[in-house]
């Protein structure tokens, strides 16, 4: 595996992972008005993500380690609870630990709770969660993805296939929870970053013999320059 330069290792990468955890609308007590409180898990620890990539030879997934996220970290973030990856559809918010979005960190992950606002978006969120149409929550975070002190890489062989796991052990910040039915990316920028990340990681994981050396690249460039010179 190619050794990272200091500049690459310190690069901050934005990621979004989907948590397929069940959401609930809290039941109202006897004689109480219908509840508008939505609860669930935004982050699950030690749970394999959907594949970053997968083919006949190898498969790569991500895992969030428990030590990556603490309440102290979250209390220093501005976290918006949105819907459908749309940051204009704000349902709740926690800014530096205060606001309409509350959360706790336990051995399973990060649980959240908020009262859906009395708006069209709040009513829609309640109905979709009650019906089970929204099956989970995605969360967005930033980390030094290429620094192995932040993201650890492990490899194992199983049934003739290479299984690669990237375990996120340290996170710089969390800035978005979103109610979502699938792990779609929230915007073009995040999708582009994800594609660049996958491309970079797959290049790293190629055997050394499959990567052209710097000397070979220089030779090819010199041949191209020579071919373009006038005779």
TrEMBL record:
Q: Name one GO molecular function term.
A: peptidase activity
Q: Which UniProt keywords apply?
A: Hydrolase, Protease, Viral release from host cell
Matches recorded under InterPro entries: Peptidase_S78_dom
Please provide an example of a Pfam family that matches this protein in its UniProt record: Peptidase_S78
Q: Where is this region: Disordered?
A: 199-231
For the biological process aspect of GO, one term held by this record is: proteolysis
Basic and acidic residues: bias regions: 199-225
Q: Does the keyword Protease apply?
A: yes
Q: Which residues form the Prohead serine protease domain?
A: 23-198
Question: Per its record, how is this protein called by name?
Answer: HK97 family phage prohead protease
Q: Which organism is it from?
A: Bacteroides acidifaciens
